[in-house]
Design brief:
Strand content: 5-15%
Largest sheet: 5 strands, parallel
CATH class of the largest domain: Alpha Beta
Distance between the termini: 38 Å
Number of helices: 7
CATH architecture of the largest domain: 3-Layer(aba) Sandwich
Structural class: alpha/beta
Number of domains: 2
Number of strands: 5
CATH topology of the largest domain: Rossmann fold
Order of helices and strands: EHEHEHEHEHHH
Length: about 170
């Protein structure tokens, strides 16, 4: 792939099993990205240096995954003018509500778009939509993607109507 357009950053490598879904959807659309582990708490200077030089590499969107106190997306947003998408990571103690609340409660002037807890695929899709504003080919790919989702739902509805609720539920169990 070309120079990265999206930077995916996580505060800990334990977030990678969730975060990989953002990378997969970016790859599906042919969007170049890079992935880093940079903690806002354990390496604040390294994070600041990376974020402040990312535009020189062509980065256009940040995706930041964080659990617990979940400061990473907000710190990134405080360091850049680029859009930041936060992925709250599910935690054992509060099931990700702590992460979600930390990310969505950003102060005025420091916005972070936030997806669902562990919603990495949607973070990737949102990054694609942002990039598609200035990329007609990517815009067309996204339109096709949405059209395919619509077709899948319509086929499921048709089958449900055809075979009935009980048979459909049985088929889902298989």
């Amino acid at each position: 792939m070309n120079n990265p357009l999206v930077s995916i950053i996580m505060g800990s490598d334990s977030d990678l099993p969730v975060v990989q879904d953002a990378g997969k959807i970016l790859e599906e659309f042919g969007v170049s990205y890079e992935t880093h582990v940079i903690s806002a708490h354990r390496n604040p200077q390294g994070l600041a240096t990376y974020v402040q030089t990312a535009t020189q590499k062509g980065i256009k969107v940040f995706i930041a995954a964080a659990g617990g106190a979940a400061h990473l997306p907000g710190v990134i947003a405080g360091l850049t003018f680029l859009p930041v998408i936060g992925i709250p990571i599910h935690t054992k103690s509060l099931e990700g509500l702590d992460s979600l609340f930390s990310i969505v409660q950003m102060p005025a002037g420091v916005p972070v778009a936030t997806v669902a807890i562990n919603g990495a695929k949607n973070a990737g899709l949102l990054a694609i939509q942002i990039l598609a504003l200035s990329d007609k080919a990517l815009q067309e790919k996204f339109i096709v993607y949405k059209s395919k989702m619509k077709e899948v739902v319509e086929k499921k509805s048709e089958e449900l109507q055809k075979i009935g609720i009980q048979n459909y539920l049985e088929k889902m169990k298989k």
